[in-house]
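Final report, closing paragraph on structural work. Over the funding period we assembled a curated collection of sequence-structure pairs, and we close with a single example.
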Amino acid sequence: MNGSLLKVKSIQWVRTIRAKLRQWIDSRTLHYYFKNKRCGSLDEFLAGNGGNYYYEWPGTLWRGRRLWCSVYGKAKIAGSPSNKVLPIVILPNHKMPSDCGLQYQYRPPFGGWARTMIDSEAVKAWLPRYEAIRPVAVLNTCFYFVFVRGALDFNYQHWMSDHLPRLWFYFQLKKYLPQLKLIVSREMPRYQIEALELLGIPVSDTVFIDQNQPVEVMNLYIPGFVSTCAAEVSKEFWDVLDVFSEIPLNEVASRAYPEYVWLSRGDAKDGKNRVLVNEGEIINWIKSYGFQEVKASELSWREKIGTFRNAKVIVGPIGAGFQNINFCSRGTRIILLEPAHFRCAEWFDRFASRRGCSFFALSQAFKGNFRYWEKSPALGEAVFLGNFPWSYDLDLLKDQLTSLLPDIVRCPP
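Its predicted structure, as stored:
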């Protein structure tokens, strides 16, 4: 066996062992990390009975195990004092439940973001403060939904791909618990409130809470995940997101929408994350072919649906706005520009394929040694290079679009 073949087989073996190890860890996450009691029947889970339980939903499967949801007999909830951390949920044992985490199912139970967030010094410092505040109300049978712009939740793509589909559990529980209320924050962005409205969740079924006015809940339901960004998704994930694709266009088309869209990155968070530095130059060129610049963050949820459903061609640099291709009509041509230091076209291709769209990911050659992380001497810690600004060669893009869109970009001026 030559050296190259041996190297390939060694890599395959390592990947197989790593995948099996992750499955083994995941299968024990519920029992060893959350330490809640498992309910053997749905009736027992719905009753709550004042304890901490979890229930594995029959007939569902994601990442090798059943989807699941937890119920806590008693908890106090308040908005977060910072836009950088999770909402505060306090149990009688003076701790936060671990399944409040954002991506805990995508990380090992002994580390990762969730454990760091839950056990952080900042959270520990806030707990006594919130425990001392008397609840303004005592509620019964509520559903916890990640609602504040904390950690990954401020990102539109992560909210739509990681958190919004978790409402699948809410709709399942609502069938048996008509009194179930959805807890949300008064600081919830408008587009999130509009999404709940389009899903058919009325204001009468929501409870708005404030940062300094915690509420106490008897029987608080906290959902597990049905997907995580850039990982596998479940059937239940599509059950929620497909609702928006089925909304009649006359319910969202309040104005005329462009057929050729340049999906801009100009609204990137802080004006820094993965900014396409020569985007203005590209826009000036592509507008000559009838493309209109669109910034998804400036649109209402209905306008997002109308814009993407009406578009025939969408071109732009990689960003959260491409999550909206889930609203596209069949036959839409989608062209994504990727920097060499941040690749996740596979995730968006999954949505395009489901909607019957043509998807193309364009990139340019990378010069030098490629690394996602680099240690910063100034900070003394690793820095994620994926968020660095980048540029795309305009002459290369002209050639690529002339080839992909010959009916539109006939000859670059």
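Residues 101 and 114 are 5 Å apart (CA to CA). Confidence is low (pLDDT under 50) at residues 102-117, 147-153. We thank the funder for supporting this effort.
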